[in-house]
Amino acid sequence: MPFWIQHRLTIALVAPLAAFFLIGSVFENFFPYQISGRESEPGINAMRYLALVAARVAGMGAIIAAFSPIYIQSFPLRAGRELEPAFESSPTHWPDYWGVITGVIGAAIWISVCHLQIETTVLSWVGLAGDALGQRDAANPFLLYREPEMLGGFLFVRFALLVVAVPIAEELFLRGFLMRAVDSQDWQSMPLTKIGSSGLMAGTVYGVAAHPNEAVAAAIWFSLVTVMMVKTGKFWNCVLAHSITNLILGVYVCQTENWHLW
Fold first, then answer.
1. How many domains, the chain?
2. pLDDT in tens, 195-236
3. Which of 17, 110, 245, 258 could lock onto 173 through a cystine, CB 3.0 to 4.6 A?
4. Residue 44's beta-bridge partner residues?
5. How far apart are the first and last CA of the chain?
6. What is the pTM of this model?
7. Cβ 106 vs Cβ 247: under 8 Å
8. CA distances in angstroms from 35 to 12, 123, 132, 135, listed in the order given
9. Cβ(202)–Cβ(173) under 8 Å?
């Protein structure tokens, strides 16, 4: 059996997030841009930065669209169709109010905890610099793109990445693949409500590893969404919560100019 056929579900679940990092690596090595300081000081290549964000949206979007039949088959959006045996107890993964509530609460927690700067404090205790865990780009688009058309274009693709592409890609990888694969060799047929302790812990560990400079907020947020996942058993609730948190965070960043948060 061809590799693609044998591992098509794994490829479908991993590919969107892999594209995010692959595109970032290509730009870093072949089309680098520089961002210095919180206020996007002169020296950044604004067009390359815009191209990076747009390329990620386009690449991830194309992959998600191509594999969408597999996603819908694995996590159905409606009942009344022939489902895999693993999903008989949860005939639909259509999101509900728990996704909204979790997303709003998660945003409040993320923003509040990040402002405490716990990671920076701990690093100072052990004699390390505050940026030892890395920093986000912290680019201020209102200084970077002076023309309204360029600013509008950047904000459009930045929010598309933040609110649509990243939540779908990250949740597909994390809850569709990683948490189930860690817990069972027969993970393809495992309902989200049946994931064991090792898989649940893997979700939090991934969150911390992917957001080291926001480790405490990430640990709380990813654990919160996992609790909601176990309660509802609905994959698309996790995507909805992720999208709402990121939308609130993006609006908050633009309003308060806390650019280091996105």
1. 1
2. 999 999 999 999 999 999 999 999 999 999 999 999 999 999
3. 17
4. 42
5. 43
6. 0.90
7. no
8. 33, 23, 17, 11
9. no
Q: Which residues pair with residue 42 across a beta bridge?
A: 44
- Name residue, tokens 């590919």: 15
Burial of 125 per CB tally in 10 Å (0-12, 13-18, 19+): exposed
* pLDDT tens digits, 216-227: 999 999 999 999
Structure-token pair, residue 180: 């189930």
Reduced 3-state DSSP string for the chain: CCHHHHCHHHHHHHHHHHHHHHHHHHHHHHCCCCCCCCCCCECECHHHHHHHHHHHHHHHHHHHHHHHHHHHHHCCCCCCCCCCHHHCCCCCCCCCHHHHHHHHHHHHHHHHHHHHCHHHHHHHHCCCCCCCCCCCCCCCHHHHCCCHHHHHHHHHHHHHHHHHHHHHHHHHHHHHHHHHHHHCCCHHHCCHHHCCHHHHHHHHHHHHHHCHHHHHHHHHHHHHHHHHHHHHCCHHHHHHHHHHHHHHHHHHHHHHCCHHHC
Check: CB of residue 230 under 8 Å from CB of residue 193: yes
Domain, as residue range, for 186? 3-261
